[in-house]
Every structure is written in C-alpha cells, then in structure tokens.
Amino acid sequence: MGYCPNPECPHRLATGRTAEFVAGLLRCSDCDTPLVEADPDAAGEEAGRRAIEMVELARIPEPIFAAAIRELLDEAGIGYEIVGAGVQDLFGFGRIGTGYNFVTGPPVLRVEATRLDEARELLEELDRSSPGAWGDGESRDGTEEG
User: Fold this and answer.
1) φ and ψ at 65, to 5 degrees?
2) Which residues is 21 bridged to in the sheet?
C-alpha cells in the first residue's frame, strides 16, 4: 500500500486524512507526489503516544511539601508524578511519627527527564525559602546532610 505524504494534497485538504493507494502505484492521483510506504498520519500518532521519560528527583518526607511542589511544577508546566503518596496510610501505622510510612517509604517525586534541571532549580528555590523543609538533617534525595 502507498500513502501520499503531501500535507497540501487536495485529498488531505478535503478529507483531513492521508490518501491511500493500492500497491504498485507510485504517485498520488490527486497531487502527483511520489508515494511513501509508511502512513504519515500513523507516524504522527505514534510519536504523540510515546511515553514521556520520567526520572526521580526527590523523596518527599512531609505531605505539606507535596502541595507546594505540585504548585511550583504546575506553574512551570513541568510534567511530574508523585509515586507512593496514595499508599502512605494503608500499611502498618501509617505516617505516625515520621510524616511518611516506614513500610512504603516516603513518596517519590519524578519529573520529565528533559526538564530535570529546571525542576531541580525550582526545588532548590523552595529549599532556600523554607530552610529545613526536607526534614532534620536530610537532603531532598533522602541522604544525610553533613
């Protein structure tokens, strides 16, 4: 099967779809453009469905900081997810005494890999504006500060 790759093809302009042709034809009957084997529309749809790579940026020891982080990242338009926030109260004693569940560990902030540096800067600004926000002697990545 062949497909017309021309975005200005009269068929595409009239129907909104790529013109398809039976195997053996070499040119589009509407615009005389050489045909291609792969459907250009399907390639565009596939690219739109590709998963966004997410990378871990920080562990969140207190639920109150999750709200501030969400607000910062939403305002910047950075894609993120907070993994484990929904299970904090489901196991053991929940968050008693630590702000997070000992069984599941603290929620983990993951951000778009392509915007990691920008997200890190925003969290560092939050850190500077709220000293000690990440807990007693603990850094954003959960390691002991010295």
Assistant:
1) -75, -25
2) 2
Tokens of 29: 């009957």
Q: Residue 26 gets which letter from DSSP?
A: -
Report the alpha-carbon distance of residue 108 to residue 60 in Å, rounded: 6
Amino acid occupying residue 64 = I
Residue 57 CB-density burial (10 A; 0-12 exposed, 13-18 middle, 19+ buried): buried
Q: What domains can be seen in the chain, in order of their start residue?
A: 2-49 (no CATH), 54-129 (3.30.70.790)
At 76-95, the pLDDT tens digits run 999 888 877 654 444 444 44
Q: Both tokens of residue 129?
A: 């504006």
In the predicted structure, residue 75 carries a pLDDT above the cut 50: yes
Q: How far apart are the two ends of the chain, measured CA to CA in Å?
A: 65
Query: Is 68 buried (19+), middle (13-18) or exposed (0-12) by CB count in 10 A?
Result: middle
SS3 state of residue 11: helix
Contact 60, 133 (CB under 8 A): no
pTM of the model: 0.48
